[in-house]
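Figure 2 data, in text form.
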Amino acid sequence: MMAKKKGLVVASDAFYNKIQQMEPMFPTAKGEELNSLAVEVIRQSAALGERLHPVTRRGVVELVRTMNSYYSNLIEGHNTHPADIERAMARDYSLEPATRALQEESVAHIDVQRLIEQRLVENPEENICSQAFLCWIHREFYERIPCEFREIKTPGGDINIVIPGRLREDEVEVGRHFPPAFEALDSFLTRFEECYGNVNLGEIRKVVAAAAAHHRLAWIHPFLGGNGRVTRLFTHAYLVKARIDGHGLWTASRGLARNRTAYMGALASADEHRHGDLDGRGNLSNKGLLDFCIFFLQTALDQISFMSERLELDGILRRLEGYVGRQVSFGELPLEANYLLREAFLRGEVPRGEVARITGKPDRTARRILKNLLEKKLLTSDSERAPVRLAFPTKVAGYYFPQLYPEGVETTEA
């Protein structure tokens, strides 16, 4: 018997319709290797950024959100320059329609990530694995993106429109994978919630669950479009709730995007059916899920290590001084600007009345230096009289945090 749904014609038994077909939910082999990786993720993420002043850390977190949006959308083939994202965050959109659409998509990702974090602060007991929460992520994201990004072309050439927050009502094909039948999505999502939303999971098990759930949600493919973004935003929520997000200072998307071929290959391998009696006892490949979890946790450790190196105190102060020195050579900044930027980094905030003391200059000269730094957006403040704090505009990302973005993408001043 064949099934046809809006241009997709396949054997009806190709679609999964029983929740047992999603097993195993956790890898059942090489537990020691996975546990060791999980322990390292917990240990290193807890130490990430612990020497940063909380105010300075919040500024870096904002930069990381932008980076997460950039890389998550890049995985989907949408390349938006970080400078364009920064302009869009200030509501300065391009007049060119294609660029503006990408800007709106990037801002949507940042806004939804912030909403997720706010929701978890307000309700720490939020069931992030529930169908309601997943649909909420999808709705918030798709309500914010341009209409053209809601259009999905079927294999038959028809155009379907993605409805924000609504589970798909069609059968779909993702590469060689046929996700569960749309009529069975409720039962698969219920099983997903029961397994990964189990409040009794231990700390180590939660780390493994973050990796396994990432694949299984992508495998279910609950929405007509946007499944990749929703999966990565969900994974961020899972890491936050499990308290392994390193205070918001690292993101898996950077590592996944920089190893996109390996990422897609690992996802596809975990889609496969069991390969004989030595490949677990579930319907799906235990080895495939194990390999994906190992890949994901190794990627997480690599990204935590990357940010740990970038946030090492002496290193970032040297790079900050080097940036100022470069601007001094161009006549753009006075040498004393370094003292003020350094103080803001270390203390979090600097009262305006201390600027003269910090720079060692008379009040009028000190005020001029401060004004210059604020105009160049190297410092920021909540009001004209409020203390100033270090800012992290895109133009300095390549100096303060080398390799944060791919080579050729980092935007720096001349």
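Caption note: The first helix runs from residue 31 to 47.
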